[in-house]
Structures are given as C-alpha cells and as structure tokens.
C-alpha cells in the first residue's frame, strides 16, 4: 500500500533525508506536480466542484504510487511523489507520464464532467541532485519551466536556472535511439461514425524502452535549440509512416494518413522539402496525407504559419488538432483553408455527460461545416461518446473504443484485411 500524508516542504525534506539513510534505497526521484485549470472548474461548478477534482486527483495519485513510493499533498494545487529505487531517467519519466494521464481523466460533478491538466517537474538523486534540498530546488526549477513553456513534463538538466525562457526537457540520447532503431511508428485507426468503415489512421511515434514500455513523443521531443535531431526524428517518422501505409492508401478508397509533428518541426526551414521528398520517394498521393497543426501555432508563430501555407502548396491536407481546446479564430481558419479538424479529447469526453459541452461541440461542428472542414473526434472511449458525436454531426472518430495504436503488421491484420474483406 502507498503512503499518503499532508506534508509541507519541510516534512518532504525530512522524508528525503530519511530515505538517504535507508540502506534499501539506492536512488531517489521527485516529481513536483501542479494542477492547472482549477479556476475554470471553480467558476463552472463552484468551489465544491473544484474540491472534488482535487480530492479525486489525490486519491488517484495514491493509487498510482508503487508500494515503495510516497505521495504528498503540498498545498491546494501542488502535490509531490517521491519515487524510490528507479534505476534510470526513463523509468522516472514513465511514472510522470502516468501522473499526467490520471490528471486528465474526467471527474463526474453532478451531471457534468471536469478534468484538470498538470505540469510536472522531475529530478533525481544522487545525479544530478546531490542533497535533499538540491533535489527539491531542481524540481521547482523544472516545474517553473514546464508551466512557462506549457509542457506537461520537464526533467531538470544541469545548467537549468530560474530563468524559464531557456530550453527544457533533455533529448534522452534520441540520436542513439534513432541509430539503434528504438523508435517505433504505431498506427491508430480512424473510423467513420456513420457506417463503421475505416477512414484512415494516425501514425504516432514511440520510443521503445529495453523493458518493452513505450514512451510518448512528449517525453523525448527534441528542444528548439537542437534542430538537427528534430530533422532526423521527423524524417524517420515521415519516411517510415509513408513506406508502411503506401499500399493502404492505394488499395483503400479515401484512406487518409495523419501525422501530428511537434510544433518545433514547423520552424524547420527544410520541413516542406522533407515532406515533398518523402512523398516522392514513397510515391504517396499527397492529398491522402494530412498534417495536423494547432490553433496556437497558427496564431503565435508567423514562421510556422508560412510553413503551413507552403505545405498546402504540395497538395498535402492540413487539419486542426485539439479543436475546441483553445480559442477559435474563424477568419484565421478561413485564410488557411484547412481540410478538417479533430475535436479535443477532453471536450469529447465531457460532451457525453454535460449539456453545456454538448452544445459547445454542436456549435464547433457548425462552424467547421461553414468553413468546409470535416470533423473528427479524438478520445472516443465508449459507445455513449460515439452515439453522442454521431448525433452532433461528427464524421469520424479515434480512440480506445475502436482500437489502440499498434504496429503496421498488426494494423494490417486487424483492420486492412477486415476492410478488404467487407469491401469484397
């Protein structure tokens, strides 16, 4: 059983010191966690609703902790998890990723649902921290970077200061992973809600750890000051995805392959040429490749916006990811002429049980239709969600209700073969 207590930082410091004198503890890691979005939850559901979200997260965090891990309620929206005997940084980041996942799980409040997001700063002892106080301070700095850069998880690196304008997460020897073929491209089906037919797939990239666990790209994304590694990763992602799915695009009418490259990738001068070269090399129909962009990228990054327009010149489709998560500028969307959008997964989950969110999704679908965009939904986790989205006019969906991301060979067996059989 995990231990959960209401510790302040002074008591957290004491607990770390106790672990340092415990012969059974060889290493320590600390995850400092800040819950965000409570102001909006309080405004919508009242303070009792916000308290319910905090209590649910505290309970889930305790359940998530291993037998030898400790969780702490530091303050109203600040928590910590002390991880003992994690042998490497990858294991620590996997634990942090699971914390982010449980924070995103909706909490029922009356007839509605609410979910929070987290920023997490992590570090380890004895390296890079060498004392209990250094471990806490390093996590505070990493958390500050995470909040400023709006990243879910940031791992402390030597040289990181209190100035949160510098780079954040380390690359975790991504170059070595590329050379060792440890990066894997997985495919998650997108299914037509109207007739259940295969509409396409999203190609996602994962880093396979020695133990078999798969790290999401958010945990190993190259920083902005390392464009060379970003180029290597994006080429690997594009080339492998197009090579694996070229026959699917040729044989299945309307099959659309989607990729959501990191925002930093759209700052690469070579990205447009890279996409064009990959399409030519794999003889891939450009109009059957969709690259996903975010509203924030379009609003805040003139260089990224220019790249998006040049990509459109290749004939590639452009879709808006996380539709509804940020403010929507219809005139901006009209100028770029996006082909489609994917509703934000949190909005999808809450629309099932909340009338207000259901009306929001309906309005977003109407706006997308007026702009000539197809509407998809991410995070379709059950039949209720699928039926709600279908009634609201959503075209296709993606999520665990249909299937999880998988290797190309398995996707072929479970989806391509089935589609070919049904088509015949």
Overview of the molecule:
This protein is α/β, with parallel strands linked by helices and 424 residues long. The chain is built from 15 helices and 17 strands. The chain has an eight-stranded mixed β-barrel, surrounded by six helices. Strands 1-3-4-2-7-8 form a six-stranded mixed sheet, with helices on both faces. Strands 5-6 form a two-stranded antiparallel ribbon. Helix 3 runs antiparallel to helix 4 and helix 12 crosses helix 13. The N terminus is likely disordered.
Task: Give a quick set of tags describing it.
6-stranded mixed sheet; disordered N terminus; alpha/beta; single chain; 22% strand; 17 strands; 15 helices; 8-stranded mixed beta barrel; 424 residues
